[in-house]
């Protein structure tokens, strides 16, 4: 009897041990799970991250089973993880640090982003939304970091990438905004051979550098970089900065209300182009081994606007007209022929313009008649624009008058 009981207990203990082992080894995903790895469900994301083995070369796939918002500061060391979004969003709302030959990417529809608001009021703190080091790589859909704290001398960084073999690909935008008491903020900080590609735009606000490439780092931005200083006490801020072998390629535009570019401690504006260019189709801004290339939007020709008369011609002098490229600052001018010294023709032109409707009332009641793009203003000598009185315009010493009756308007030589 005693032996039998012991045996029963042993069986019972074995069964209990099996049950204890099952949840982490063989249970399929069930309701309440947020993700799964190889068919094994996890009801919290942190446990799934911890379950990924370190080392090896194979990517471990974490498949989302619901939207996941993850608020922990995350450090991934020597792990290879592919997030299968499976139609869901994976949003980190805290820092994501990727270290020691880790490879993080995503697949499927949905979004993998960092969307972080800084509220820590500590002094001199630095917050990098994404930090990739030690030969690690990360592909992510977008990064936003906003400093809402009252902290002094803080720094926020959208993406920080450093060390040989380290790379970051951001398929969407990077938005980074410091607070009013910032030390210095960065959209991207790349250092020591780090490599960053942004396929969207970079929007950087408050005492900030849009992109910095330091010590042989390379950065490519396929969208636009917008830097908005937007802060009263900021004395600095730069669109793109390159130092000691850093290179940056911008395939969109740089729009900065602070400095445009700084290469090896030298500020350069849009026109400080290094010639000849070292990249076809790009403007080069280079000093020593550091270079910023900005795509020339007009490499295949300018996109000209309409010709507009800037100096109307007279009977004695040629006029000038100009057109401006929609994509750059290039302006082209050409002369406009002198007016023909033919009063009858002028009169005919006035009548023709009026018949064609090339005239309009001005706010004060005067009437402008437009001939060949030139505006002739008919005014009242008395200053009274009420009623149907006559208006006058003197062209080259000849006075013309305009009858303002309701039935029609005639230009008549006076
Ligand atoms: Zn142009």
Written description of the protein model:
Strand 26 and strand 27 form a beta hairpin. The model is unreliable at 1-6 and 18-26 (pLDDT under 50). The protein has three domains: 27-235 and 243-258; 297-339, no CATH class; 343-413, no CATH class. It has a twelve-stranded mixed β-sheet. Strands 5-8-11-14-17-20-23-26-27 form a nine-stranded mixed β-sheet, with no helix packed on it. It has an eight-stranded parallel β-sheet with strand order 4-7-10-13-16-19-22-25, with no helix packed on it. The chain is 11% helix and 43% strand. The protein is mainly β and 414 residues long. Residues 298, 302, 325, 327-328, 330 line the site of zinc ion.
Task: Describe the SSE topology.
Blueprint: H1 2-25, E1 35-37, E2 40-42, H2 45-51, E3 60-64, E4 68-70, E5 74-77, E6 80-84, E7 90-92, E8 96-99, E9 103-107, E10 112-118, E11 126-132, E12 137-140, E13 142-147, E14 155-162, E15 167-170, E16 174-177, E17 185-191, E18 195-198, E19 202-205, E20 208-213, E21 218-221, E22 225-228, E23 238-242, E24 247-250, E25 254-256, E26 259-263, E27 266-268, E28 282-287, E29 290-295, E30 308-311, E31 319-324, E32 331-336, H3 343-355, E33 359-361, E34 367-371, E35 374-378, E36 390-395, E37 398-403, E38 411-413
Parallel strand pairs: 3-6, 4-7, 5-8, 6-9, 7-10, 8-11, 9-12, 10-13, 11-14, 12-15, 13-16, 14-17, 15-18, 16-19, 17-20, 18-21, 19-22, 20-23, 21-24, 22-25, 23-26, 24-29
Antiparallel strand pairs: 1-2, 1-3, 26-27, 28-29, 30-31, 31-32, 33-34, 34-35, 36-37, 37-38
Bound molecules: zinc ion.
Zinc ion (ZN) binds at residues 298, 302, 325, 327-328, 330.
């Amino acid at each position: 009897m005693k032996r039998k009981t012991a045996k029963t207990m042993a069986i019972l203990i074995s069964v209990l041990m099996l049950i204890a082992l099952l949840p982490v080894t063989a249970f399929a995903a069930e309701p309440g799970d947020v993700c799964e790895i190889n068919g094994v469900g996890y009801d919290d994301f942190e446990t799934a991250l911890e379950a990924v083995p370190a080392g090896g070369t194979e990517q471990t796939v974490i498949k989302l089973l619901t939207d996941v918002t993850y608020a922990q500061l995350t450090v991934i060391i020597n792990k290879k993880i592919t997030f299968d979004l499976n139609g869901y969003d994976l949003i980190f709302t805290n820092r994501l640090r990727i270290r020691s030959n880790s490879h993080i990417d995503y697949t499927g529809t949905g979004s993998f982003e960092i969307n972080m608001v800084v509220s820590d009021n500590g002094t001199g703190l630095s917050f990098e939304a994404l930090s990739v080091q030690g030969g690690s790589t990360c592909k992510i859909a977008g990064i936003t970091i906003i400093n809402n704290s009252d902290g002094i001398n803080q720094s926020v960084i959208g993406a920080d990438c450093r060390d040989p073999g380290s790379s970051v690909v951001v398929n969407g935008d990077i938005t980074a905004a410091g607070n009013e008491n910032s030390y210095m903020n960065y959209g991207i900080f790349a250092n020591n051979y780090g490599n960053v590609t942004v396929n969207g735009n970079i929007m950087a606000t408050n005492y900030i550098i849009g992109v910095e490439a330091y010590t042989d780092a390379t950065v490519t931005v396929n969208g636009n970089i917008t830097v908005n200083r937007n802060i009263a006490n900021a004395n600095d801020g730069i669109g793109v900065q390159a130092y000691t072998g850093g290179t940056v390629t911008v395939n969109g535009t740089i729009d900065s209300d602070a400095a445009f570019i700084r290469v090896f401690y030298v500020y350069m504006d849009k026109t400080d182009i290094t010639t000849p260019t070292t990249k076809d189709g790009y403007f080069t801004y280079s000093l020593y081994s550091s270079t910023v290339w900005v795509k020339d939007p007009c490499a295949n020709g300018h996109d000209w606007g309409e010709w507009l008369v800037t100096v109307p011609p007279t009977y004695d002098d040629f006029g000038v007209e100009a057109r401006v490229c929609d994509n750059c600052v290039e302006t082209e001018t050409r002369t406009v022929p002198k007016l023909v010294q033919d009063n009858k023709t002028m009169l005919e032109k006035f009548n023709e313009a009026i018949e064609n409707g090339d005239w309009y009332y001005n706010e004060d009641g005067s009437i402008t008649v437009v001939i060949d793009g030139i505006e002739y203003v008919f005014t009242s000598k008395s200053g009274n624009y009420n009623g149907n009185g006559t208006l006058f315009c003197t062209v080259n010493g000849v006075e013309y008058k305009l009858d303002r009756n309701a039935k029609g308007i005639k230009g008549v030589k006076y």
